[in-house]
Design brief:
The complex is a heterodimer of chains A (about 300) and B (about 525).
Chain A lengths: L8 E2 L47 E10 L2 E11 L4 E5 L6 H8 L7 E6 L2 E2 L4 H6 L1 E4 L11 H11 L4 H14 L15 H13 L5 E5 L7 H16 L3 E6 L2 H7 L2 E6 L2 E7 H5 L4 H9 L19
Parallel strand pairs in A: 4-9, 4-10, 7-8, 8-9
Antiparallel strand pairs in A: 1-11, 2-3, 2-5, 5-6, 10-11
Helix pairs in contact in A: 3-4, 3-5
Chain B lengths: L1 H18 L1 H28 L4 H25 L3 E2 L14 H13 L2 H15 L8 H31 L4 H26 L5 H10 L5 H10 L3 H32 L15 H4 L4 H15 L1 H7 L5 H9 L8 H11 L4 H5 L4 H5 L4 H31 L5 H22 L16 E2 L3 H33 L2 H44 L1
Parallel strand pairs in B: 1-2
The chains are: A alpha/beta (about 300), B mainly alpha (about 525).
Protein name (chain B): Transporter
Keywords (chain B): Membrane, Transmembrane, Transmembrane helix
Amino acid sequence: MPERTDTVRATRRSPLGAGPQVSGPDYPGAMPPVPDETPPDTPSAAVPASAGGRPAALEVRGLWKRFGEKIAVAGVDLRVPAGSFYGLVGPNGAGKTTTLSMATGLLRPDFGQVLVQGHDLWADPVRGKSLLGVLPDGVKLFDRLSGAQLITYAGLLRGMDRATVAQRVGDLLTALDLSADADTLVVDYSAGMTKKIALACALVHAPRVLVLDEPFEAVDPVSAANIREILAGYVASGGTVVVSSHVMDLVQRMCDHVAIIAGGQVLAAGTIDDVRAGSSLEDRFVALVGGRSTGEGLAWLRTSSASS
Amino acid sequence: MVAHLVRLKLTLLRNGLRRSAWQVVGLVLGLLYGLGIVAAVLVALAALSTQDVEVVRLALVLGGSLLVFGWWVVPLVAFGVDSTVDPARFATLPLPRRTMIAGLSVVGLVGVPGIATTLITLGTVGTWWRQPQALGPAVVGALLGLALCVVGSRTTTTVLAPLVTRRRFREVAAVAAFLPFMLIGPIGSVLEERLSGTEDIWPDVVRVLGWTPFGAPWALTADAAEGDWAAGLAKLGIALGTLAVLLVAWSRGLDAALVRGPQDGRTRSRTRGLGFFGRLPATPTGAVAARCLTYWLRDSRYAAGVVIVPLLPVILWFSAGDGWVMLLLGPLVGYLMGWTVSADVAYDGTPFWTHVAAPIDGRVDRAGRAWAAGVLGVPVTVVLALVSLQLTGRWSLALPVLGASLGVFATSLGVASAVSSRLVYQVPKSGESPFSTAQGGASAGLLAQLLGTGAVFVLGLPTTGLAVAGVVTGSTVLGVLALVVGVGLGALVLVLGVRLGGSMYDRRAPELLERLVSFG
């Protein structure tokens, strides 16, 4: 386990989302409410910068992103310690994908900084991107290539030599159970196979930091277990993994750190045990995010009571 | 329901306009252009109305036939059919086929070409004001003509789309399907030349045209004006029958398209080994080139962009024979082959993130794409330039012709390399019919094409100027100069275009990706 430098922060949101913020037990200051003007340029002091001297594997400071009227990410700070298995959870539309896109150089933030092993990603994209392996969500692959071609492409694009690429392509296809479909075009893959081949592309250059957006979506249980094992081995050997997911159980079992995001802000972050504070991660998540409806009001959907 | 579809189309258009100022500019230019044409045609129609019935018939049937024919064929070879309201998106809704066809037909009229055609066809009714008994038939004929235009364009694109989308044998099928369409024009012009010796051929041509689906809706009014009600009724039957056949064909095509879904043929296709990835240099640039080459061969949108290339010599031969116009073949092909790269990033779509996420600088991306286009474009351009020399028997002009061809190719490739890292516009998605135009993509894309083509023209001027001088004078010195300048200046433009495109890519790649993602 890495050194305990992360502060646990937990703030409760008012039902309307932008009301007064209640500060959590471990965090002295209150989170800034969503401002309606320019956000501050200086990163908020929420995350101690590079505490302990050793740079975090991935650090995100004061990220903001607005799409038209909607502020998708409103001042997100995250510190992913090196060697951690970091889960990012949040409801739909919380800003997870936007945050991860900005953290991997795919989407330019309006404000804020991204540090990959201490290197400013947006100031020197080539350096930062060479350390990252990325599996984004909601975008397609070059699906007119075969599986083997696609992984080869990812490897060659990152300047690896042909022999190494060829060997790793074989290893990855075997590990992900795709050998039989190595020569099938990716366009003809199922959703789960597509996720797996995208994961292979993210892994082929043995990155220092892996950022995976919804890697288990549509993946069958056996493949998911294989992927978890691969990722766990990778973390054990000193790699760092960031995954986003909806599945709390999975995150609780798999990750050692977690951040809960909603409404474009971090509600709580830290080690799993600190964040869940005794209860299950799911209960804690629901308590923090709120918004559970009782399921009443859809009476017409209950076919037994309808008409007849 | 029809009103719903039209409202949907208008909403999509408005949202598209709100998103990009370029689309507004494109739309305004298109509207001005369309209105200009409409005004000119209406003035001509007014002048026409004072002429004899025979003259009016001549003009209306010829013009009307061209209009219908254009609606049927132009979407296949040029701009595509607006796919804003794509029938495949309604696959899950329980809509009667009849409603959908009616809705899509009306939606087809919303747009610059649709509005212009509507105004012009309604204008034709006015030409008959001196023959009151023909006014009723004129209204019927105009409406039928309009319906034939819109329904015909939907039918041809719906029915022919699967031919071109199918991966295997795609090129062959596409060319075979297009050949008759593309040759009708040239054959017509040849016929015209051969026949124009005998002075009064036109009335006969028009008489024949009047009995075809293209001319019938316009000719029936003329028959009515002359009191030949039997012929008029027969032509009404022809027009109505054609419309019915088109509707049935369209309906069948829609059924097939809805079942097929947006994906093309679900046959699992396999490749053997790594293809180009095993043969090109194992560098990032080589990898980009290998990927692009693979796409040139596997993605029907690239084929649709250059489908006209193998037909150009035939078309030029029919329209110019062995005249000097044939010598334009090389430069034309060079321009087309080079310019295809201008839509490269747009064709990538969201998979472009692979490049953005990789630690490469812009020059790698640009150079890789340019290499791929060069590997294909140089041989094709040179071969077709040689073909033009052989066909015209003017091998003495080899130097200037080759100089101009290669020069235009490199210039076009260079400009396209710069343009495509700045501008992306909506294109049919991979696997969609290459004949569809995405919403608002047409106007923005057209504008980009115009600006880029202008740049290619200006930058290529020294080369083409020297080449023309060489061809006209037959001077060897000028010919050598054209070749040297063509290759040298072309290479310079290409290198500068790749560099400029590369530095724009470095600054704006995430923004490009953001736009591609917003296209969905």
